[in-house]
Amino acid sequence: MKKRQGLLFWIALIVIVLINVIPYFWTILTSLKQQNEIYNVKIFPEKLYLDNYIQVITESGFLGNIFNSLVVSGSTALICILIGVPAAYAFARLKFKFQNLLFMLVLFITIFPGIFIISPLFSFLKEIGAIDTYFALILPYVAYFTPLVVWILTGFFRTIPDALEEVAIMDGCGVFKVITKIILPLSLPGILTVGIIAFTLSWNEFLFALIFTSSDSARTVPVAISQFQGVHSLNWGQMTAAAITATIPIVLISIALQKYIISGLTAGAVKG
């Protein structure tokens, strides 16, 4: 019985891995094919075609779009952390009226559809002359992703024993010193985790970026990738090459901070 369960486990694991890996594998292969090879039944290209990457990097202005995404996503992650850390600490440590109701509202915002507010938000941004700027993307991203940051960090802060703060206060530390010297160092994995989550969500967001930007001066990666069109069809080779190129920064950041992400998500799930 145990052998059968073990076999079923490994079969299920292999199937799940293949389902997740095959799309990436197929995207990489497509990016290395010429346009006339993409619709063939052959899986592998006859020879590696690197012109798709060369054209994306040197001719399309895609590196500028990556820079835009770095600015928007990095600013969003930083602002979300600056707002989310004190808010999450308040939910985790303080007792105040309507605390549970406010926390439920925070969770509700995370599932609220962006399409619902896109029209009034566009009118507001147009009125203040912010369309096609970084601000037009950073503002809604911060509004949408900060509640998620607060929710995760609240669970993380609750895993830190109250006794540490009580001892520090008894030793004469003020609230600010307790937060900067004890809470923040202990919660660094959680803070880095939510920073990466906010960064990734901002990097991949498409709807607001499509509506609120109209030129390459502020256009981010997802919208830029959708612009790769040939004369009569989509240029799948360059589109997939751009997608792979845009994925590299996220992969490198995730690998570099992998241990913090795992520990942060694990701790936040314990009491969140």
Descriptive tags:
14 helices, mainly alpha, 272 residues
Helical fraction: over 70%
Largest sheet: none
Order of helix and strand elements from N to C terminus: HHHHHHHHHHHHHH
* Secondary structural class: mainly alpha
Give the helix tally: 14
| Whole-angstrom Rg | 23 Å
Q: How does the overall form come out from the CA principal axes?
A: globular
Q: Can you tell me the residue ranges where pLDDT is under 50 for at least 5 consecutive residues?
A: 268-272
Q: Tell me the distance between the termini.
A: 36 Å
- List how many beta strands DSSP finds: 0
Global mean pLDDT: 83
Strand content: under 5%
Give a verbal description of the structure:
- This protein is mainly alpha-helical and 272 residues long.
- It has 14 helices and no strands.
- Helix 10 packs across helix 14.
- The longest helix has 32 residues.
- The chain is globular and about 70 Å long.
- The two termini are 36 Å apart.
- 30% of the residues are buried.
Topology:
Blueprint: H1 2-31, H2 35-38, H3 51-58, H4 62-93, H5 99-110, H6 118-127, H7 134-157, H8 162-170, H9 175-186, H10 188-204, H11 207-212, H12 221-226, H13 236-256, H14 258-271
Helix pairs in contact: 1-13, 3-13, 4-7, 4-10, 5-7, 7-10, 7-14, 8-9, 10-14
